[in-house]
Write a structure and sequence with these properties.
With 412 residues, the protein is of the alpha/beta class. The protein is built from 15 helices and 13 strands. The protein folds into two domains: 238 residues, Type I PLP-dependent aspartate aminotransferase-like (Major domain) (Aspartate Aminotransferase, domain 2, 3-Layer(aba) Sandwich), CATH 3.40.640.10; 98 residues, Aspartate Aminotransferase, domain 1, CATH 3.90.1150.10. 44% of the residues lie in helices and 13% in strands.
Length: 412
């Protein structure tokens, strides 16, 4: 690894891993730190936490302007539903750790289902949790290999649907765990896929991993195509502080989800302080056994949500701008000695993969990331000379593409 000093980041292209905080998220974070320093866990703070900034006198509201948008847990969840296109009457779960919500999802999959189908573009740690639950329950997990086909330039939606449908029917699957957008940027038409499989043999329970889809591509849960939708706040929403989200997708699934959640919490298998605290706070039923919980993520999330809603439109409406940015970046990268790894147009997102030339494929991920950081560019790197770049939502600003091209040429 080089010894040159790292440069402050001038071009941030790492949103698929961790987004930069939005302006209102930053202000909320700063004002929460001030509030915590002055009030700690006082009744003044508790009243604010439960009722929102409207419960404060005008002087206090002026002192903490970054927290003025806080209206309580219920209001935050309502705003998150708007971003996800979720029905207003369906619950949303908040958790400090998204893996805790994934434990719930795994339990829900294998309670009614004998064989759950996944694809090979999913997040490996999530698939590990599913596999462990399959072993524990004596059920099966089937993997449909769509990655290679989805990365071919001429693949179509129908080819992907046919491949998944073939595995689903042949293996007699009755459950689905689908990744809407993979960490490598491949987008699956999950709603269309679910509808296709419903026509063959309706799945008993459907979970969608929307971690890379939420506030990036689209997430319209009004169409009643999944039972549980998992997401997070620290990537494309850009709240920075990790917080897991789980949206109920169908009215009919509410009872089975709440029963499984209650059983897992009672048995100590699902232990997340924020999940317990936020649920009790929303229902105004805090008990004396509540664990001390970190709350900063709530306020930065509220700020990021406010910025996202103010931007107007839906992520699907903003995606064309990201795709235009992707096209321009791919051309710049090709001219700088990198090979763009492009999915077919129907499967593209705001994530661009680049492959180094043959002699540079041996570079380790840490070396690559360091090389770009020296030039003021933040991105994700993988062993084998592969880069992952997240496209800016607002398009390229003047000079940014030229900066990227210079960094790519220097690293290549």
């Amino acid at each position: 690894m080089g010894g040159a000093p790292l440069q402050p980041t001038q071009l941030y292209l790492d949103t698929a891993r961790l987004g930069r905080m939005t302006p209102r998220a930053q202000q909320a974070h700063l004002d929460f730190a001030h509030l915590a320093g002055e009030e700690g866990g006082s009744l003044f703070f508790e009243r604010f936490l439960q009722s929102g900034a409207g419960a404060w006198p005008g002087e206090a509201q002026a002192r903490y302007p970054g927290l003025s948008g806080w209206r309580g847990i219920g209001s935050l969840k309502e705003s998150l539903r708007v971003l996800a296109g979720s029905l207003p009457e369906l619950p949303v779960l908040l958790a400090n750790r998204s893996t805790q919500l994934m434990k719930l999802a795994a339990r829900l999959q294998f309670q009614p289902c004998r064989n759950v189908l996944v694809t090979d573009i999913g997040w490996p740690p999530y698939h590990d949790l599913l596999a462990a639950e399959a072993v524990r329950t004596g059920r099966a997990l089937t993997v449909a290999p769509v990655r290679d086909l989805a990365m071919q330039g001429q693949a179509t939606d129908e080819e992907i649907l046919d491949l998944v449908r073939t595995h689903y029917v042949r293996e007699r699957c009755d459950g689905l765990f689908l990744t809407a957008v993979s960490h490598l940027g491949v987008r699956l038409p999950v709603e269309k896929l679910v509808r296709s499989l419903e026509a063959a043999s309706p799945p008993r329970f459907v979970v969608i991993d929307g971690a890379q889809e939420f506030c990036h591509v689209s997430a319209d849960l009004r169409n009643d195509y999944c039972d549980l939708y998992l997401a997070g706040c620290h990537k494309w929403l850009q709240a920075y502080h990790p917080m897991g989200l789980a949206f109920y997708g169908r009215r009919r699934s509410r009872f089975i989800i709440e029963t499984a959640l209650r059983d897992l919490v009672a048995g100590g298998e699902l232990d997340d302080p924020l999940l317990r605290f936020s649920t009790q706070l929303e229902s105004d039923a805090l008990d004396d056994r509540t664990e001390t919980v970190s709350l900063g993520c709530l306020f930065s999330c509220q700020g990021a949500v406010a910025d996202a809603l103010e931007a107007g439109g839906t992520p699907a409406q903003h995606l064309p701008r990201r795709l235009e940015s992707l096209k321009a970046a791919a051309e710049v990268a090709a001219a700088a000695g990198w090979s763009p790894l492009l999915s077919p147009p129907a499967f593209r997102t705001g994530i661009l993969l680049l492959q180094a030339e043959r002699e540079k494929k041996a570079l380790a991920a840490t070396e690559l990331r360091y090389a770009f950081s020296e030039r003021g560019v933040a991105l994700t790197a993988y062993d084998g000379g592969v880069l992952r770049l997240s496209m800016p939502a607002e398009g390229w600003r003047p000079g940014e593409l030229e900066h990227l091209q210079l960094a790519l040429r220097a690293a290549a």
